[in-house]
Amino acid sequence: MIKEFKDFISRGNVMDLAVGVIMGAAFTAIVQSLVSNLINPLIGLFLGKIDLSNLVFKVGDATFKYGTFIESIINFLIIAFVVFLIVKVMNKVIKSREEEAEPEETKEDEMVMYLKKISDALDEKSDK
Questions:
Q1: Sheet strands (E) in the chain
Q2: pLDDT at residue 105, as a whole number
Q3: Whether residue 60 is found in the same domain as residue 41
Q4: CA atoms 15, 21, 27, 30: torsion sign
Q5: Residues 7 and 66 both lie in one domain
Q6: Where, per UniProt, does this protein localize (predicted)?
Q7: According to the model, what pLDDT value does residue 107 have?
Q8: Bigger pLDDT: 104 or 25?
Q9: Residue 16 and residue 68 share a domain
Q10: Are residues 74 and 123 in the same domain?
Q11: pLDDT of 98-113, one tens digit each?
Q12: DSSP state of 96
């Protein structure tokens, strides 16, 4: 059972996933800092308030922190856009690698194909 666990953990996909999760967490922290320290103060200038997270409204005893919700939406949009760009670049890289891997047909390949057809035709004629 320990050997199976070791094999499972050392597989490439699991390691790639672990690296992706760690990088995603670090990237999320960077985006949250960007939004909290740069974007929100800029938006706050236009709204007349410096900190969006302090935007609240109360109904009775309930407090609704819509400023924090706006920050979360901004975080999501930035992360989604960056992930979109990463996927777009990766698709281009994969596509270019696939195109490079496909061999181009040359005159020699065409001649070999025709010679094979002739050979097959002669084999069929001799079998009759």
A1: 57-59, 62-64
A2: 62
A3: no
A4: negative
A5: no
A6: Cell membrane
A7: 67
A8: 25
A9: no
A10: yes
A11: 777 666 666 677 777 8
A12: H
Please report where in the chains the tokens 């706050």 appear, as a residue: 44
- DSSP-assigned letter for residue 48: T
Specify the DSSP element, H or E, that contains 99.
helix 66-101
Given the structure tokens 């195109």, which residue do they identify?
A: 99
**pLDDT, tens digit (0-9, with 9 covering 90-100), for 62-93:** 889 888 888 888 888 888 888 888 888 888 88
Within 10 angstroms of residue 85's Cβ, the number of other Cβ atoms is 10
Burial degree of 104 (CB within 10 A; 0-12, 13-18, 19+): exposed
Do 64 and 96 lie in one domain? The reply is yes
* Residue 60 pLDDT greater than 80, yes or no: yes
Structural domain including 80 reads 51-127
H/E segment holding residue 69: helix 66-101
